[in-house]
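Below: protein 1.
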Amino acid sequence: MTHFHIPIPANATALSDCPALARRAGVGHVLVKVESGRPFGNFKILGGMTAALRALARITGLPVAQLQMRRDLPRLICASDGNHGLAVAAAANLAGAPATIYLHHSVPRARADRIQTLGASIHWVAGTYDDAVDAAVEAAGVDGVLVPDTSSDVNDPIVRDVMSGYATMTDEINVQLAASGNTISHQFIQAGVGGLAAAMAEGLPEARLAIVEPKQAACVAPALAAGRVVRIEGALHTCAEMLACGEASAAALAILARHNPLLVPVSEAALLQAAEIMREVDIHTTPSGSAGLAGLLHVASSGHLKELAGLTRSSTILLVATEAHPDAFTRSLDIELSAARNFAAHFFPEMGLPDGAPSTLNA
């Protein structure tokens, strides 16, 4: 695996050229955006943290830099499989606001512990991620500010802020591609509720989009087929824990429908294998983080799907390794919070950014 040594935005995560993955897939290049370098080790900080801070600023009428001057900030509330809740908890910590994160019982205890370390409280919900979403919506209706990454309202402003934050990634990629002289022909992007895939589709419109979902928790494909949000019933158990969603985001669907994506459901075995293959090229991620690779290898193994996708030996593929593997995550809370604060200052310049302060944590 090699990294492009090019002038890129100071807070950009690495875009890595992985020839071993390209050989496996029978394509020209595979580029991997490695999001383990973000504060807290995943891409959700781009959306959840920035959207939560914007929400508090709108409600109070204060600049983000002055939020900590208030002692009566409203409680931030969200549902999560883990990472979105971590990002919202980070926003609450930076602003000095209380936060409650609604988690379903399948969320690993270690993910809940990281959220609690930031000072947020956890409310456990029986059932699936979608049950946690319902519970968070109900709670916010009584007291608090909901910071969702999904909604049945196509115009939900906070969901749109979340996707706008994700678009930071495509801004970085476009700069990195221009500096390296590369172009992308295809992007294989994993989907939970579809927000990341929608942001990638809008930010990289020339690249053919393939949406990759676990077969056991695929909600975007049936929603696109129906032309509306539909809820998938069942336990939604999958090793790709961050993609275990039964209802897609309406705002994301509206965008994805315009891009006519290739829909790629993948098996549990393929998801697990993709994480192992990523590890072989020194990208330590989870089945959720490597789902795009699972989709690429599935398509590459089928003559029919290869033809449908337009994959050739000259294709250049973009993947996103969306999170660090928990076993590879060793940074301290103080380091993470410092990086998150500095990262937020790039979005909200009034916060001020110390000279040389890091807002990514690439090795």
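Below: protein 2.
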Amino acid sequence: MKIVTLALIAAGLLLAQDKKAEPRADAAKGASGPTLPSGAKQVEPGLYRYTDAQGKTWMYRNTPFGLAKWEDKPVTAAPVVEPVVPVSTTDLGDSIQFERQTPFGQQKWTKKKTDLTEEEKALLKKEDPKRPASTTKPDQAKPQPPGKNLEKPSE
């Protein structure tokens, strides 16, 4: 029984070996993709530039899948617009409190007027253009919260 099984396996292997591999239809069409023109100049390794008879400039790049071709158009840089986040400022005498809304809640920070960065000075000037950003009097009193006036109302 073992000999018959071995003979059948050997016959199956021999029959499988006799079949010739047929070339794929895709391999025969390999030359149908873009080809590198003879006047193309190498820009960098694997990248070529070519100007055709109509004056169009074409770029060619060697990729693992063959040669890629595209028209070289000048890139127009879109202006970068920074999102404007409203920042409110509160003058606390010798320091400024900044507040802005973020996706994670309200962010608050306080800086002395002498330690302000250029960005914070610009924010302060934008908020109140009449007020200078870094000049203060050292004996300037802090504003009192509403409802805690020390003076009696006049009758």
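Helices lie at 2-18, 25-28, 118-127.
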